[in-house]
Amino acid sequence: MPVDSSPAVSSPHAASEHPTPAAPSPWGNVVLAAILMLATLPGRTQGLGLITEYLVRDFHLDHVGIADISLWATLIGSAFCLPAGWIIDRCGLRATTISILLPLAAVAFVLSISFNSVALLFVLVLLSRGLGQSALSVASITAVGKSVGRGEGWAMGVYSALFSILYALAFVAIGWATDTHSWRFAWCGVAIGLVIVAVLTACFLREPARAAERANSATAPAAPSLTLGEALRTRVFWVFGGATALFALVYAGIGLFNQAIFAEHGFDATTYHHFAAVSALWALTGQMLCGWLSLHKPMPRLLAGALLLLGLGLVALPQLQNRTELWIFAGAFGLAVGFVTVIFFAVWGRAFGQAHLGRIQGAAQMVTVFASAVGPLLFAEVQKSTGSFSPALYTLSVIVCLTALTAWCTRLPGQNI
C-alpha cells in the first residue's frame, strides 16, 4: 500500500502515533479459495460424472433416470446460492464456509455406504448440489473476489489455475481409487478430504472484506457498488450471466455423459479420466493467459473469443476418430474452460463493485447452476430420441457462436471499446 505523503500530517510523529493498519496479503485467501473450489467436486457434474456409470448400475437406473435426478437436484439445489451470498455478506465468510463443508462431508460419506434406494440417492445428490455446487462455490468465489478487490484479473487467473491443477490431480486420484478399489472407497476418501478442508478453513481463512476495501480505497478509484437489484437491471449481468450459463449447460451435459459420448466414437471407458485430466491442464494455461489478458483487453472480447472456440469445438467433437484428434479437442475445450472460468470470477466485482458482491455472485452462480441442471437432461433426451449425442452438439454450437457475437458487442461500465 503506498504511503500518503500529503501535507495533512502536522507533526513528524503523527504518522507513527496513528499508523494505518496494513492490509493482509490476499494470497493466502486466494490459495484457500482454490482449495474450497476443489471441495465443490462431489457436488459438481464433473465430479458425479466420475461415478455416474456406477450409480446407474448400483441403483438400477438408465441415463435418462440419472439425468432426471441430476436435473431436479440441481434445480432445487440452485436455491442455495442466494441465501449463501446473503449470509456471507451479513455474517462473515469463515463460519459460513465451515457450516457448508461439514454437512457436505457427511453427505459424501452417506452416499458412499448407500444401496438401492433411489429416493435416498436423490436426496444425497440434491444436498451435494446445493451445498457443493451452489453454496460452497459462492463462498469460494466471494473469498477471492473480496480479497483481491476490483480489477485483479491476474489474481483471478492464479486462483483459477490453482484449482485446475487440484482438479486434475483429484480426477486422477479418484479415478485410481475407483479402478483399484471401488467408487464407494473413493467417495469415502472425498468425505475425509472435506473434513480436512474444513479444518484448514477454520485455521487459515481470513475475513477479507474490510482489508480489501481499504486496499482499494488507497490504490484505485471508488467502485460503482451496485445492489443486486441494480445489477439485475443491467445488460452486462445478463450477457455475462447468460453466456456462462450456456457454457455451464454444455459443460454439464458433456461432463456427465463423457464416457457415453466418447463411446460413440470407439473410445474405451478409461478415456474420460484421461480427457478430464488433459483438459484441466489446458484450462490452467487458459486461466493464466486470460488473467494476464484481462489486465489489457476488454472482458467482453475475451468472453467472445472463448465462446467461439467452444462453438467450433462442439462442431468438431462428433468428427473425432482417433486419440490425437481427441487430445486436440481436449486442448481447445480446456482453453475455453479456462477463459470462461476467469471471466466469470472476475467480472462481477469489476462491473458492480464490492459492497454487495456476495449477493451478486450468488445470483450469477444460481443462473449457471440452473443451466447446468438442464444440460444433462437435454443431452440424454436427444440421445434417447435420435440414438446419438451429435444433434445436441451441433445445435448448441450455433447458439454458442451467436452468444459470442452478442458478447463482442457488449461493454462494461467505463469501457470505451
SSE blueprint and pairings:
Layout: H1 14-17, H2 27-38, H3 45-49, H4 52-58, H5 63-77, H6 81-91, H7 93-112, H8 118-148, H9 153-180, H10 183-204, H11 209-219, H12 228-232, H13 235-256, H14 258-263, H15 271-293, H16 299-316, H17 323-352, H18 357-386, H19 390-408
Helix pairs in contact: 2-8, 2-9, 2-10, 5-8, 5-18, 6-7, 6-8, 6-18, 7-8, 7-10, 8-18, 9-10, 9-15, 9-17, 13-17, 13-18, 13-19, 15-17, 16-17, 16-19
Throw out a few tags for this protein.
417 residues, mainly alpha, Growth Hormone, Chain: A, 19 helices
Structural class: mainly alpha
CATH architecture: Up-down Bundle
Domain count: the total is 1
User: What's the story with the biggest beta sheet?
Assistant: none
Any idea of the CATH topology? Growth Hormone, Chain: A
Helix content class: over 70%
Shape: globular
What letter string, H or E per element, gives the SSE order? HHHHHHHHHHHHHHHHHHH
CATH H-level homologous superfamily name: MFS general substrate transporter like domains
Number of helices: 19
Q: For the terminal residues, how far apart are their CA atoms?
A: 30 Å
Beta-strand percent range: under 5%
Number of strands: 0
What Rg do the Cα atoms give?
Answer: 22 Å
- Identify the quaternary structure here: single chain
